[in-house]
Every structure is written in C-alpha cells, then in structure tokens.
Amino acid sequence: MEKPNKLCVAISGANGFVGKNLRRLLHKKGIDLVSITRRNLHNYKFETKILSPNLSKNIPISKLNKCHAFIHLIGTGKQNTTTDYEYVNVGLTKNAVAICKKAKIKKFIFISGLGVSKNTTSAYFISKYKAEQLIINSKLNYTILRASYIIGKNDPLSISLTRQIKHGTIIIPGSGTYHLQPISVNDVAEVIYRALISKKFLNKVIDLVGPQTVTFEKYVKIFKNKKSAKIKKIKLENAYYDALHNLKSVFGIEDLNILVGDFIGNHEKLKKLSKMKFQTYLEVLQARGLS
Ligand SMILES: NC(=O)c1ccc[n+]([C@@H]2O[C@H](COP(=O)([O-])OP(=O)(O)OC[C@H]3O[C@@H](n4cnc5c(N)ncnc54)[C@H](OP(=O)(O)O)[C@@H]3O)[C@@H](O)[C@H]2O)c1
Fold first, then answer.
1. Confidence band for 5, pLDDT divided at 50, 70 and 90
2. Residue owning the nearest CA to atom 15 of ligand 1
3. Alpha carbon distance 35, 41 (integer Å)
4. Is CATH 1.10.150.20 the right assignment for the domain spanning 7-147?
5. 115 — phi, psi (to 5°)?
6. Cβ neighbours of residue 201 under 8 Å, at least 6 residues apart?
C-alpha cells in the first residue's frame, strides 16, 4: 500500500539525458514521478506520464496536485529559425512556474548554465538568466543549479566526440586551453535528490560542477585514448564561421562561447551543501569505457 507521505515530484524534459538518469534514481528511492514529455516514454512503476509539447494550459492539473516539487529540465543550447532560446528556455519556464501555482506545487528545481550572470552577453545565458529571474521572483521555493558539462552514458559531448572519432578526426577549436569542470550525471541526479529532501538547498543558486577542472584539449586526448583518430586544431575564426553557416556544424555558436568563456564554478560550496563524494571526470570516463 502507498505510504501517505510518499514524496512525489513532477519532471519536465523527462526524456532528456538528465531526465532519464534522474527518473531512474528517484524511482529507486521510491519517489512517485509525474513525468512530462513531448514523446512517449517507458514508464516506471509509480510513474504517471503527461504528454505535452509546451507545458500549455491543457496540462491535466489533477495529475500534478499531489506533487511536492517540480524539476524543470526542459532546455536547449541550440536555436534556429523554428525554435529559439526565448521560446524554450524562457517561455517554457514561465509555463512551468504557472503550472506550479495552479497545482499548488511549492518547490521548483531548475538546471541553469555555468557562466550565467547579470552581465552576460550570450543569447543562451541571457535566456537562462531570464528563466532564473522568473523562478526567483515567483515566490516558489527554489533551487537553481548552474551546470558545467554533465557527463555519463550518452551525454551530448561524448556523443559528439564519438561521432568525430568514427569519422577519423576530432576538432579542437582554437588553442584548447580553456577549461571544463565536468560532473557525473549520477552525481547530478543525487544532488537533485538531496535538493528535494534537504532544506540546505532552499532558495539558493549553486554551481553544479565536478571536483576537477580540465582543459578541453586534455579532456579530448583522454577521451580518445588509443582510438585511432587525428586531433586537429582549427582556428576559432573557422569554427565560428562553420557555426554561423552550417546548422549541422560540430560546434554551435553557444558551444564555442561556453568553451572559450572558460567558466569555472565553486565545487567546494556544492560539496559542503550536499556532503557527497563526487566522481572525477576520469572515473566517469573509465566507468563508461570511454578512456
Ligand atoms: N547536459 C549538460 O551538460 C547541461 C549543461 C548545462 C545545463 N544543462 C541544462 O540541463 C537541462 C537538462 O539537460 P539535458 O542534458 O537533459 O538536455 P536534453 O537531453 O537536450 O533534454 C532536454 C529536454 O528538454 C525538452 N525540450 C527541448 N527542446 C524542447 C522544445 N522545443 N519544446 C519542448 N521541450 C523541449 C525535451 O524533453 P522531452 O524529450 O522529454 O520532450 C528534451 O529532451 C536543460 O535545461 C539544459 O539546458 C545541461
């Protein structure tokens, strides 16, 4: 029989990379899930599914009334003429906040981006900043997590590097000496779980970053390991040219901005709040057989 005080959370963007990993962990912890997604997904026991393309007014609020928190994972780092940052990162966050108000869900957890600040000039970071402000001003309890590269099975960076290895050449834009601070997707899921159950995360903006920084060049070399592929440095000018002219370029404009931006976060604060032991990027790559 179901326990009366069983925790229930709603997750939007449930079928994405973080969503899939988070649902697996929360399901293991015995939490009821209401997963909101555009496409059909494989349900867990104690998981309710809501199909919605845009978190519109038609969302069945009755399915969300028992939720204690809303974890908003919808987001994009690429825009084009049919879908843009303002619509996805700002507009759908606005809709998510409105749903919480209607369903009387009190807590909101959001993944923003490492590098977001009031002074940013990047279109992607501006949209994430606006989303953060919507949440902070919503009067909901919130936790905002500003993530660096999240890595694990089928993370976007590994998919891109694996594809490039298959084609024989991995590209490094510019010098490759800018840094990443990768964090394991399993640790990300655990942090979100702790943010759900602990008051320590209440109304905070926290960097979601791993324990080590690494240059992009070093990360690529470790990832490649003994696989046969060339590593080719190209001029930043050429990488931006490709990003501006080709929808399928290896690096999009914002990928390049994030890399060159060389953003480093505060891992110690995350460690202190969560009291977790985090995996290093090397441990994640080794566990996945990727290095
Ligand atoms: N992965 C990273 O390294 C990283 C780093 C920094 C920040 N983040 C942020 O963390 C969150 C989760 O990231 P992720 O890696 O899981 O991303 P992801 O795999 O791309 O998943 C994002 C999900 O958002 C939903 N979505 C995307 N575009 C949409 C649109 N136009 N309309 C409606 N829904 C849309 C989709 O959910 P459904 O498929 O369920 O419909 C998609 O699967 C995002 O907000 C992302 O910006 C991620």
1. low
2. 17
3. 9
4. no
5. 115, -15
6. 143, 194, 195, 273
pLDDT digits (tens, 9 = 90+) for 73-101: 999 999 999 999 999 999 999 999 999 99
Ligand 1 midpoint to CA 131 (Å): 14
- Fold exhibited by the domain 151-183+209-263+276-291: UDP-galactose 4-epimerase; domain 1 (3.90.25)
Tens of pLDDT, residue by residue over 25-46, are: 999 999 999 999 999 888 898 8
Q: Which of 69, 131, 142, 58 is nearest to 104 (CA)?
A: 69
Ligand 1 and 111: CB distance under 6 A: yes
**C-alpha closest to that of 272 among 213, 206, 181:** 206
Contact 124 CB / ligand 1 (< 6 Å): no
Q: Which two tokens stand for residue 85?
A: 């940052």
* Closest ligand 1 atom number to CA of residue 87: 31
pLDDT score, position 58: 87
